[in-house]
Automatic annotation (TrEMBL):
The gene is LOC113063138. This is Sorting nexin-3-like. Residues 1-107 form the PX domain. Belongs to the sorting nexin family. Keywords: Lipid-binding, Protein transport, Transport. It comes from Carassius auratus (Goldfish).
Length: 115
């Protein structure tokens, strides 16, 4: 099972080409966004919720990465990360954020630039 988060964004900021969008993103996509922002911008990027390495070990007494409370905790952590990043005026100019929020399929080989 893959952890996929459905991201719905709504904005009135003129810098974004779409006022509403819905995309599906994996944890690795959030890692990509964080890495791009750290590399390309002057934004202090908040941390992502931790990896689930311990939860993937066998013989645990719970459902590991499939546990409902873990899934909800991770969803909330990713939502907080995204709200902080998307609310930052400098990050709003970064092409990687626009790709992440508004393009159904992500081109991770894009040429970094400001929007």
């Amino acid at each position: 099972m893959l952890f996929v988060l459905s991201c719905f964004s709504q904005t009135n900021l003129p810098i974004f080409k779409l006022k509403e969008s819905r995309v599906r993103r994996r944890y690795s996509d959030f890692e990509w966004l964080r890495g791009e922002l750290e590399r390309e911008s002057k934004v202090v990027v908040p941390p992502l919720p931790g990896k689930a390495l311990f939860r993937q070990l066998p013989f645990r007494g719970d459902d590991g990465i499939f546990d409902d409370s873990f899934i909800e905790e991770r969803r909330q952590g990713l939502e907080q990360f995204l709200n902080k990043v998307a609310g930052h005026p400098l990050a709003q100019n970064e092409r990687c954020l626009h790709i992440f929020l508004q393009e159904e399929s992500m081109d991770k080989n894009y040429t970094p630039s400001k929007n």
